[in-house]
């Protein structure tokens, strides 16, 4: 079902997410967005013995074990974070259910993170990638910048088909364009040709890279809906299959598990953690998981 045009304007999207997501996050995280943006936005300064009023999340457990007494890390906060969104807008991101496409999840996630960052005085920019790097939005702050990102995403055309996606030019483009040390979100479904691990690893050495993987449950488990035409979202190639065939569904699920395992290994080789975003998951819940991931990375 398509939404009324007025409901998909940048201002309406931002208002909806301010009300439905950001207000809930304010309550759940109680304003402590260090758990989201820690890593680039603060620098390690010193260690000292734990005091009763200290936040236990800042305990350095390795030092505590060596000293046989609890120690906490102290940090000097930077005044500003520069964050970049490297956005895969290739044809496969337009896959999803009747209500939510992966592209919709991408737009909502970028909007929420950009709003949270700029609301705290930081700057955000973006690199758009279809079959090639389409455009670059320089990093700036403020609510107007968030609206500009949404506007540019909404007007980005959907590609009906393209050569199989190669993320290497996007990652190498980020390496070349982003100069100051930044927080870099690589948002993609990672349905692409192999070999992206090395440039992602290089990006993570120079900056702090966090891949955000978009996925839809129908990509890993095929429902029994009888004979259908399946279309490759990247190439447009169609194949007639019978989803009522149990053995076919089992082969499909097996291939999906193998693909998932391959992706897990690729992220490990790149030395990065990955946040997964499903088209059927509540965005607040996903971002709280993201905050937990960031907390684990501190230790």
CATH topology of the largest domain: Rossmann fold
Low-confidence stretches: 1-6
* Cα radius of gyration in angstroms: 21 Å
Total count of strands: 10
Task: Report the CATH superfamily of the largest domain.
Answer: von Willebrand factor, type A domain
CATH-scheme architecture of the largest domain: 3-Layer(aba) Sandwich
Sheet-strand content, in percent, reads 15-25%
User: In the CATH hierarchy, what is the class of the largest domain?
Assistant: Alpha Beta
Query: Going across the major beta sheet, what is the strand order?
Result: 5-4-3-6-7-10
Structural class estimated from helices and strands: alpha/beta
Order of helices and strands: HHEHEEHEEHHEHEEEHEH
Largest sheet: 6 strands, mixed
Multimeric status of the protein: single chain
Structural domains: how many: 2
| Helix residue percentage | 40-55%
Shape: globular
- Count of helical stretches: 9
Describe the fold and architecture.
The protein is of the alpha/beta class. It has two domains: 5-27 and 79-298, von Willebrand factor, type A domain (Rossmann fold, 3-Layer(aba) Sandwich), CATH 3.40.50; 42-77, no CATH class. Helix content is 41%, strand content 22%. It is built from nine helices and ten strands. The strands form three sheets. It has a six-stranded mixed beta sheet, with helices on both faces. A two-stranded antiparallel ribbon has the order 1-2. Strands 8-9 form a two-stranded antiparallel sheet. Helix 4 (102-119) links the parallel strand 3 and strand 4 (123-129). The protein is globular. The chain starts with 9 loop residues before the first helix and ends with a helix.
